[in-house]
Amino acid sequence: xxxxxxxxxxxxxxxxxxxxxxxxxxxxxxxxxxxxxxxxxxxxxxxxxxxxxxxxxxxxxxxxxxxxxxxxxxxxxxxxxxxxxxxxxxxxxxxxxxxxxxxxxxxxxxxxxxxxxxxxxxxxxxxxxxxxxxxxxxxxxxxxxxxxxxxxxxxxxxxxxxxxxxxxxxxxxxxxxxxxxxxxxxxxxxxxxxxxxxxxxxxxxxxxxxxxxxxxxxxxxxxxxxxxxxxxxxxxxxxxxxxxxxxxxxxxxxxxxxxxxxxxxxx
Length: 267
Fold this sequence. Notes:
Elements: E1 12-14, E2 17-22, E3 25-30, H1 41-52, E4 60-65, H2 90-94, H3 98-113, E5 121-126, E6 129-131, H4 133-140, E7 143-147, E8 151-153, H5 168-175, H6 177-186, E9 190-191, H7 192-198, E10 203-205, H8 210-223, H9 226-239, H10 244-263
Parallel strand pairs: 3-4, 4-5, 5-7, 6-8, 7-10
Antiparallel strand pairs: 1-2, 2-3, 8-9
């Protein structure tokens, strides 16, 4: 995938993650194509830092990756006795207390949680492999635009693990319980056509058109009034937890706020 953010001075560039900001649009790029953007605790901390580094002007965040693969998932070095330099290995973590292990996983999850902040719309531009943690990182975003060579797979179960980087909730929301269970339990590939058909992807395009498709979607999102997008996102995010009548009430309250704001009338 091309790198249109390279002419911008990075706000952050470390541990396989680069953040650039152009007024209302931020781009978070995975920058280790030689390892197919395999993930590590250091990369997760950099992703968390990227979320915390966004200025208030940002409305849309695009998540992208250099090279042929979006992310091949967790770097297998995590499962070796030596692990990563300066990091406890996963074997060491497993020997810790339940509280320590829970706290560590919670810290890892922070890299995946901020993408759905109410004041942002996030778009994952996904090409090639998006495996395990890579799949879950794409699922962390509000929207997904995929290249026709995309290969999603949730391989944790086949390794004797479970998906634990916040991917299970959006996966079930997007494709339903039965399909989500089948995808996770078998670890099979989900290709572009199925991803678009089932709602896992908003749009599938030829790989050469991925940048343009994401650019067009970003422009359309930025063109809409910010407060209206924020209110609409909050309404839609809460719809699954509300009853039909509660959703009607939430719609009325949100619209009242918008009308008063447009009319310049205080609450």
